[in-house]
Amino acid sequence: MANEATYSGILGGAQRLHASRETSVREIPHLEAGRLRLGDSLGQVQGLFTQQATLTAAKQDVSQEIKTTMEDIQFLMTILRKAVRQHFGKQSEKLAEFGVQPFRGRKAGGQALPASGDHPGARRPLIPPRSS
Predict the structure, then answer these.
(1) Cα–Cα distance, 101 to 94 (Å, whole number)
(2) How far apart, in whole angstroms, are the C-alpha atoms of residue 22 and residue 44?
């Protein structure tokens, strides 16, 4: 009985029991009602498995349609935000009403660069100058 914990195990056992009872119905006639009910339940569960497979396929179709529609929404949002920015200007505070960040300028840098070209990011020549 421990092997019958899965649906397929339960169904396999039920189908075997139903088939074996069918052959020996004359020997135990008082169990015929239970055998018929088991047969009905097996037919019902097969229909439910078919319905589940159909719904799974439909769910996958709907999921794909949702994905496509969401991509369209993102594309349209991008176009509309750019159109709003173009209409009002990139620095207009009116953009905030549409969920678009207005350009407010760059923040001042934390460190001033040295006047000479010896700052850490400066390029140095690959060949050092000749000394005479």
Answers:
(1) 10
(2) 18
3-state helix, strand, coil in the chain (%, to 5): 65, 0, 35
3-state secondary structure of 50: helix
Collapse the DSSP code of 38 into the 3-class scheme (helix H, G, I; strand E, B; otherwise coil) and give the result. Answer: helix
- Which amino acid belongs to residue 74? Q
How do the domains of the chain map onto residue ranges? 2-98
102 CB burial (10 A radius; 0-12, 13-18, 19+): middle
pLDDT per position in the chain (132 positions), as tens? 444 478 888 888 888 887 876 667 677 878 888 888 998 999 999 999 999 999 999 999 999 999 999 999 999 999 999 999 999 999 999 999 988 999 888 887 666 555 555 556 666 666 766 765
**CA 102, 104, 110, 116 torsion: positive or negative?**
positive
The number of beta carbons lying within 10 Å of the beta carbon of residue 84 is 16
Structure tokens at 36: 């018929």
Distances (CA, A) of 115 to 39, 86, 108, 119, 125: 92, 38, 18, 8, 18
